[in-house]
Amino acid sequence: MSVQVRTLDDLLHAPLDADSELTTQEYLVNMGPQHPIAHGSLRVVLRLDGETVKHVIPVPGYVHRGVEKMCEHLTYRQIIPYTDRLDYLSAIMNNWAVAKTVEKAANIPTNERIDTIRTIMSELQRLQSHALWWGVTGMDLGAYTAFLYGFREREIIGEIFEETIGARLTMNYIQPGGLMYDIKPDFAQKVKNLLPYLKGCIEQYETLLSGNVIFQERLRNIGILDGKHAIALGCTGPVLRASGVPYDLRAVEPYGVYDKVNFNVVVGEVGDCWDRYYVRLEEMRESVRIVEQLIDNIPEGPHATIRYNEEIILPEGLHYGQVETARGVFGVFIASDGKNKCPIRLHFRSPNFNNLWIVTAIASGWRIADFISIQSSLDLVIPDIDR
Amino acid sequence: MLRKMFDVLEGLYSHLRSMGLVLKHTFAKRVTVQYPEEKPPLAPRWRGRIVLTRDPDGEERCVGCYLCAVACPVDCISLQAAEREEDGRRYPEFFRINFSRCIFCGYCEEACPTYAIQLTPDFEMCEYNRQNLVYEKQDLLISGVGKYPGYNFYNVAGLATKGKPKGQHENEDAPVDVRSLLP
Do the chains contact at B110 and A308, CB–CB below 8 Å? Predict the structure, then answer.
């Protein structure tokens, strides 16, 4: 396998392969931006020979809203709702990335209660995100039932978010120096009742999809990405871990209360689609374990250490903070001039952008049907790529 | 040959197992709700349609302080403060929320010092015409008190209101004569 950076121009004007008798006329096919298989508006240009994929070039940018530019005239607290709309399936974790960066730069303390609730909410969100991904993977590969099952769990976790936060998708929950709302008194009991049910659901996922022979054949040994190339391409999250690299920000540089809980960093062996599938399924179990350890003793204390209208001015310089979202490392890069309440430049390092570009390296040589498996195993969220 | 037979049987079993699970769910309790006819309950904290509330006396709570407009990340709130002739009580001359911009983040509710602006559990506000999403004051103002039933800002603000001078409200001491030298 060779990693080569190609542009759309190279692809459109590539020389025709005429070395084999079986080679037929090559042609270009647009998959997306409006296509049932494209999760959102992602355009992928495929250069095909018959049904074999020769080259793949993703063309992102159809959901570009200029969020980073918009953030330049917003205060740090006002940036938080915008991060909900990047990777909308891990909104709370994106909020945490901004809050973490601002807190570190401006020396805003947090307390044990805030950290614990943040961790619990993040893990619930990770479960919710993986449940959706599991359903969508099933639907991509022709199992529509899986989609409904995935949404069933998503709905139940969503009800907990709804009661605590007041929103289902765009949470806007974690703020610099605290949380938007305190949890309700019955929050812990509700989550505790939910956990055994979720465990049962993950077992159902195994029966319904993982154990199915057709499903396994669609994923095993397809789109193999080895660890060396995964690192070179900047992959993070389950995609990197499936290639055998045990890099999980929660374990490597713990934030929140991740250093106080026991969990395994799930690692794959081969780096094929099946490993990417299974790493996420195992991660759901680990998330349930983390929540189980924390839910019994949420410490007492205030839910915010600064007032909501406190002026936050970061010191002059460059600030960076990152968290592990459901898809990988989400980083926030803030340049501040030390005088204003807004950043002078802001950049989001999104995990999906890097995870997307591995298709240029691994999808060549597979059939279109296998390309679907590869794409859905990457778990892409398009607004996060385009920003 | 035997190997192949075994594979086929295993594949068949895995299918039957998946189908059995689905069949079992035919008899389970339904999780879907027939939405437009049957509405799922919304949490009290739900951040939905924004309203302007009144205090228990039936007066507008909004004092036109512009804090909600400042806190709004998308600048969807615009208002103009005015003062009432008879007692100098502030009120918004117009109050406009552009719901096609609003992202329901809840910052305006958090910033409001008088609990006037509140987010309510209602999300069914689609329109065919985009202009209809711009809500004026008469669309926003409700005749109830919203989430905080007994709260009246002017009873605790230390300001004189109609019929009650300074020092006559709840938990309020008589005003101090600042020009007096006596303690």
Answer: yes
